[in-house]
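Q: Protein A?
A:
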Amino acid sequence: MKLKKTHLYSLLLFALLLLMPAPNTNAAVKLSTPVLKSAKSAGYNKITVSWGRVEGAQGYRLYRKTAGGTWQNVKTLSGINSTSHTDDRNVQTGQKYYYTVRAYIKKDGVITWSPYNKTGLTATASMRPATMISTQLNASCHPVLTWKEVDGAQGYRIYRRMPGETWKILKTLGNSVLSYTDTSAVAGKKYQYMVRAYRRESGVLQFSPVDNTGAKTDLTLNTPSLKPAVYNEGSDKVSISWNPVKRATGYCLYRKVPGGIYLRIANLDANTTSYQDKNDGDAPYYTYTVKAYMASPGAVSWSSCVNKGSMAILPALKNQSVLDRYGLTLIEGAPQLTVSQMRAYIKSVNPDVPDSVLKMIPYYISEGKAEGIRGDLAFCQSCLETGNFTFVGSAVTLDQNNFCGLGVTSNGMKGNSFATPQLGIRAQIQHLKAYANKEPLRQTQIDPRFHYVTRGCAPYLQWLGIQENPLGYGWAAGSDYADHILRIYNSIRNM
């Protein structure tokens, strides 16, 4: 009997187990909330959303809503690698959308869903920026804007501003127009342009992003780079040339005589960057400058002119009447003072002058004639540089046979020395010739500094001073150098 009871209990327990529901294995599955990574525009009617992979998920469902709305199913994606989707279902340009994602797993016909981010990510579909291709200038110096077509655009709006100003609407165009000519641009100004694509959604204009960089157009002009003017002896004309200036529609060339003002001598087109000027024989040299200009309807913009100008030394430099008119003294030529006059002068201002100095004075005349240089001016220069051969305050001494300070380029320098007085005077004459013209030396070079001189940069005594030389060259740095020499010269001549 006892065995029968035990058997009965076993049968009852088994029956109870059969009547209980099977355990739900899916209920034990837990999926984490997908991590939203990004939501961004993929075009005027598209938004791409991406999220992180969820462990154990078999797929995902993307939801969308607008502000104040409820979540709506956008797309159900199967597969563990489906972690992004581009939403193009009735997406409107400029509309703000919210997106979120749920992961899921399906087993035995039962779907288990993960939690979801109730805030979601936001994104707005927008047109891509309108990319400017170029801002060329047409023949009338008007900026011509061109840009690439923007997908979804129904038209374009042109904006313009000048430096430091805000954007202003210039023109609104239809979608078939991809260029615009700004006929209101004024020469001499700088402009910045921007193009924004637009489309109308629900009665509201939606625009592509603002591009504050924009495209710049410069209607100002650089100063022309003027090349050295060159006198052509064969044609008796001066050749002037300059580098072309970008955006220029023409050039004006000006000329002046010493002490005068610039007068316009030619008006030239944009393709002309050189000119042949006639020598009128009315000046020892001409100075030229040039200005570029840009002409547009109602306005003309000018560049700056070359301040220093470009100089051409003319044959009139040998016309004494012209030289007298401009108060210039040629360094080359025959002497106007005699040896006797120069000896009388030096004895009057320096009674203790050594006999060796008196004996060497004829060398100024003979060495000067040998090179075509005025030896009397060289003697006056020596008087200035040596303190009338007293050598008081001079950088050189009598025994150096250096009577003009050759080689004394800074305080404390001893200067060059020469074997004899004649050679010292020859070196001085040669150095003056280096400044006076470009002719070769007729005697063996003695001057150790001959090659340092820009040949022909000071044909006039008045240009030996660097401060008075219009080319910026010269022998001496002190002011009024020639005036000091001329005062000695006039004293000798008037004795």
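Q: Protein B?
A:
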Amino acid sequence: MFMKAIIAGLLYFLSFPPYEFWYLIFPALLLFYYSLLSNEKSFLSGFIFGCVAYGVILLGIQSIGLEAWIPLTILMGLMYGIFAKLFSYLNTKSENNFYVLLAALAAFDLIRAYFPFGGFPWGFPSTVLLTGPVDGPLFFEVLLYFKNFGPTGSSLLLQSFPLIIALGIYSKYKQKNYFKDYTIFSLLVFSIYIFNLIIIDFNNQDAYIETSELNIAIVQGNSPCPGAKNRCTNERQKIYDSHLTQTQSLDGNFDLVVWPESSTGFNNDPGIHSRVQKDISIQALRLDSNFLIGGDRPVQNQYFENYGIFINKDGEIVDQYLKQHPVPFGEYIPFRKYLDWIPPLALVPRDMIRGDGQKIFIVNDTKISTVISFEGSFQRYIRNSVQDGAELVVILTNQASYGESGMSDQFILMSRANAISNGRPIVHAAITGKSAFIDHKGKVISKTELFETVVLTEKIHAKQKETPYSKYGNYLNYIFIVFGAISLLWPKNILKKI
């Protein structure tokens, strides 16, 4: 009975790294939507699909522990189960109305970016397009989708095609009715694109001019024992020493040197320990470079902060960014006072204190911003940085807990999607890899391999131009939510008269 949902889930995760059979996303979604149209037990179908798909997509967090992987997998199953139930309900109430079901998809993608626990946007369908078409002849089309509509809006466009096919196969109505619906939908999307082209592109041609060129170094110091549960003697000190040693090997002048998240530990915070600040100051003066350093520090006994400290060319601490969005079951325990009895949760003894907003740092008159780890999977933090004026965004991340799963490559896909959507280059710095330089069109200029101790350097061009997405956000989803609501609440609407 649930074979369609199981097969759909299998095809879905196969479209993501490390498998990268991107074209399987279409039959996966087609089979899933068809199962919801034809199966009365829609909640279970959605639950099974979500658990199968995300159980493998998120396989890398098993190194954190089953206590993290199991809840997140079940949580995604429940999210898809609730969505499936709503989808089936709306389908019966709207007589297979394409616009109503499209509105349900649009709303679901928006909700999952914020709920539960602040959202879990990993695995958006549109990102798989960056594993195949973006490097082939369809590059221009993919670029346009993300630039205009962002990862969420692009996912809506991608999902619309298998949805209309599923409706056409399932429905007792004539196929041409759905062809008409999809034609109207396509014309609306095309009209929005033309509007963006005229209003934004033509009126902001000067903004295409590059603001500056920055010579940047990513220090990937690696870990002597990668994996959240792996422990070795003086692990954090060894990580710090490795990043310092790699930095000392650099020659020449750099505008910015980046150390990833957790490259310093509780005992190596440059904001607290003068010894560490002196180490970095020497290198800042020698390389004539600013530094962006990722690390964490204890606060009292039960809390900690995850920071990115900005150090100028004189070796002085100028400012810092505090991570705003902790990883559930990784950097804090939801409902801790009710769950402390579970032994594995003792692996997370402290909860992270959240920062209160983005920060802008100045490097050679260029505005840069940073997000830390999990935040890089969210569209809103990158967009917020751009709206605050950032011309380049740095992602500081650890990723040791992902092991050799495909999650490191999945993270880079999300960074590429956010680079295109916001028209900004992204510096993706990870302790254990993969680190990468990504230009404003989502092209990976260079990247490292997993568990490699290396320094990656590139000259990166900062950008100022706003994209339709960076300007308006997830507006496409809101448009079709309204469109679907009208179609649901007004049975004899104008669409049926066309």
